[in-house]
Amino acid sequence: MGIYWCGNLVNADPITRANHRPVLSWRLDCGECGANVMEAGCEHDASFADLAPVDDVLVHAFDLLDVEKGQRVRAG
Fold first, then answer.
1. What is the dihedral of CA 8, 14, 17, 20, to 10 degrees?
2. Cα–Cα 20 to 30 A to 26, which of 35, 36, 48, 67?
3. Domain count, the chain
């Protein structure tokens, strides 16, 4: 299970999905100052992976754990 910023997936994602599932955050703007990092950088250490959809993370995690649908708990 990996949570990636869209700009890092190309360089860091595993080659196969046999035992790996990537979930992407498409955030392009700094969460602190709003600067678009594709156009200009900023000095903040804000996370760019924090907008990865939690439901996607759960679906992939349960898939890797081979948990039946009836046993899944939804994020609240």
1. -80
2. 67
3. 1
